[in-house]
Amino acid sequence: xxxxxxxxxxxxxxxxxxxxxxxxxxxxxxxxxxxxxxxxxxxxxxxxxxxxxxxxxxxxxxxxxxxxxxxxxxxxxxxxxxxxxxxxxxxxxxxxxxxxxxxxxxxxxxxxxxxxxxxxxxxxxxxxxxxxxxxxxxxxxxxxxxxxxxxxxxxxxxxxxxxx
Length: 164
Prior knowledge:
CATH topology of the largest domain: Four Helix Bundle (Hemerythrin (Met), subunit A)
Strand content: 5-15%
């Protein structure tokens, strides 16, 4: 009789343990990260040159041209975004610069596995600094960050010819 109770108790414990494993597995499945390649709308189609001409270059130019100081015979003229709409344009361009760095590393666009990713990360870092400066509406920081963005462009174009 005692043997039956022990068998019944062991059976119940195994059953409850099995249910616990099933619940844990389901929770893990629900919270697991889906790889980015599984959620793509389409495979990458733009070339590096197209990304540079359509996203990276125009975004960098907005950052470069948003703040400036011109000294002439007529005096000093400072240029900076004057309203929320102009600051939003700089902020959007900074965000696009960061995102274009991601795109430059995607799929067949990664030219190599050493300098190319490093330079893309440097551009993303400079873009993030520009984004922070634009969000805080700080013209002095945009001017400083513009130099960092320019250096990432110059370094990359010095290593990789523009005509590729």
